[in-house]
Amino acid sequence: MGLRTREDYIEALSKMNNNIYCDGEKVSRLDPRFEGCINVLAKTYELAQEPENAELMLAKSHLTGETINRFNHIHQSTDDLHKKQDMTCLCCNKIGTCCRRCMGIDAANAVNAVAYEAQKLPDRKTNYYDNFLKWLKNFQEKDLIASCAQTDVKGDRMKRPGEQLDPDQYVHIDEERPDGIVVSGAKVHISEAIASDEIIVLPCRSLVKGEEAYAVSFAIPSDSEGIKQIVSIREMHKREHYQKGFEPGYSDSYIIFDHTFIPWERVFLCGEVELGGILALLFALFHRHSYSGCKPATLSFTIGLASLAAEINGIKKAKHVKKILSDMIMIGQLGYAAGYTASDLGKPEVSIGGKSRPFGPGSYIPNVVFSNVGRCLSGENVWHEVEMLCDIAGGFPSTFPYEKDITNPETKAYMEKYLNRHPNMSIDDQIKFWMLFKDYAISAAAAPTFYGQFHGGGSPIMEQIAITSQYDIGRCEDIVRELAGMTPREKKDKEKK
User: Dihedral sign, CA of 230, 236, 238, 243?
Assistant: First the structure.
């Protein structure tokens, strides 16, 4: 079928079954409240159609040799990892914040490696990797969008999946049948599932013997029977006079599986507990690597906001403003550099407990330490960036007037007089800027966006755990032992035995 256009994508959404619930109503995927969300994902199709973006937005399928959207590609080299990061940067720069299509590519790459290993098992339930490749070929040819459903409700956080009073707190297998499996449970906080063609389901944590029912992975059309989506939306205020250059919006779904049937040809894992845990870790790794493209790009937008706010306020030359801008630049560039290094050190290997081994069919996996360093550095600075914006802008955005009060003939002249802070910038441009600043920094949509930037891909504490568990701290101790003249680690360990 080739590459989809924006129009193709929206037409496909219009033909999907309605299983979406929002604010007490069952609604269509083209409900006006979802316009911004659809705009974000549609933008990725528009960018792929532009010749100047071809190197980043397009790739050659390793299955067919055909040109495909890079968001549907399996990484075959370190160059593919580099380009995925830069593609994410490009999309986020054009949108102003997250492009929301990274979940699909990250989930597909994780499943690709794990399904390959699962099919090698002698007691496998089905041909997992063959199933995935068939699904992937269709996914690439039709240029579809997939959301990734990983996060479970979790119930009592001090209990494992198999210890929960209600087994539905984690998505699990209810029944194995000759034609497929039946699953129940819920996945939560699933971004843009309302506007996705497919949902890829993964385990969300490590699993142990006895928790086989929770080691399940599959793909299913997002409008399938047996699925309900309960949706929250983050739309910006619509404007009548001061139009934006781009209208974004976001959604997150609770995806309810109520004895949902999954045919075997769409099952990629079924009961393999060790591989289920590795799949959870691998998706997190790929997604944290994507964050090193996403967050530096969204931080570029934040830097632009801070710089223009300083200019309009007449404080751009102040020393503290230069300090704030330099701090923001350093955070963004260090996050990007960590992601770039993670790409460059990528291998067809998985690292568990600090030990690496070949894994998967030869596709490339980013370096675990640098992926987590980039994500952690960027994520833990989210609230600091908001603080810095607040410092530069002052209290002005928090009480900025409504658009209709600015345009009302009775108040318009007063508003333009008292909102004007820059003699060489038109008042229209100043108003548009502060409206965008307010949308981004202090609107009803802003708070959950910052919250998501902090927690998305795992909170910083999760990256810190990954970094300390995977980094060779013993090597650092060896440097000290040698310089101090201490007994080398290996000899010391032997003496202990």
Answer: negative
